[in-house]
Amino acid sequence: MKREPHRPNAIGPPKRYSSIFLMAMYH
To answer: What distances in angstroms separate CA 13 from CA 23, 25, 27, one per listed residue?
Structure first.
């Protein structure tokens, strides 16, 4: 019953957007 892909940060944005997301918040 594993339909979704295996990713560690499922409760957060992707790492590619993590940098932009953090910069947008802390900028």
So the answer is: 13, 13, 17
Query: Running DSSP on this structure, what letter comes out for residue 4?
Result: S
The token pair at 1 is 């019953």
Q: How far is the C-alpha of 22 from the C-alpha of 2, rounded, in Å?
A: 30
pLDDT band for position 19 (50/70/90)?
confident
Measuring CA to CA, how many Å separate 27 from each of 16, 22, 24?
A: 17, 8, 5
pTM above 0.85, yes or no: no
